[in-house]
Amino acid sequence: MSDDIIESMKGRFLLAIPGLPDPNFAQTVTCMCEHNESGALGFIVNKEHPLLTGRELFDDLKIECHKSVDTLQIYLGGPVQPSGVFVLHGPPFEWNETLKIAPWLALSNSRDILEAIASQNGPASFMILLGCAGWGPMQLDNELSDAAWLTCPISEEIIFSTPTELKYDKAIMMI
Questions:
Q1: pTM of the entire structure?
Q2: Alpha helical stretches, state H, the chain
Q3: Residue 140: left if φ>0, alpha if ψ -120 to 50, beta else—which one?
Q4: Which of 64, 50, 57, 67 lies closest to 87, judged by CA?
Q5: How is 112-161 classified by DSSP, letter by letter?
Q6: What confidence tens digit (pLDDT) does each residue in 109-149 have?
Q7: First-residue to last-residue Cα distance in the chain
């Protein structure tokens, strides 16, 4: 097999095949942010953190926040770097650490975007995630060759507007 990736999954959803036994990825929708010869990076967009609130996260980070963050949902982005805080967001894209994924979507993980969100000056559309999903060189390509994932283009509506419990079913319908 060649060392070249077959097709970049950046800007696509990876959907767990029905019946996937891995509890980290069963019935998940993963937004792929990077995929190249060095590996792949994505974030699960349909697993809510069962306990952590926005207020608790910002308190832990020692960031002053508006009371609106009390009910802000935090998501489990994946099993890698579980204490890492990441933000998938719409415009603006001028944060310190930002990776553009699509014309309407970027990934940031710098303190400035978190402070902006905490003070209600952040992007209109965003989700805060703890952890990520990562694959080593050619690992995702091999899984795709083995039909371990379904794929479809990412959707702004699914990421930011669809209720969490409906994201998987809605994404499956896009295949």
A1: 0.95
A2: 54-60, 111-118, 139-145, 156-160, 167-172
A3: alpha
A4: 57
A5: HHHHHHHTT-S-SSEEEEEEEEEE-TTHHHHHHHTT-EEEEE--HHHHHT
A6: 999 999 999 999 999 999 999 999 999 999 999 999 999 99
A7: 27
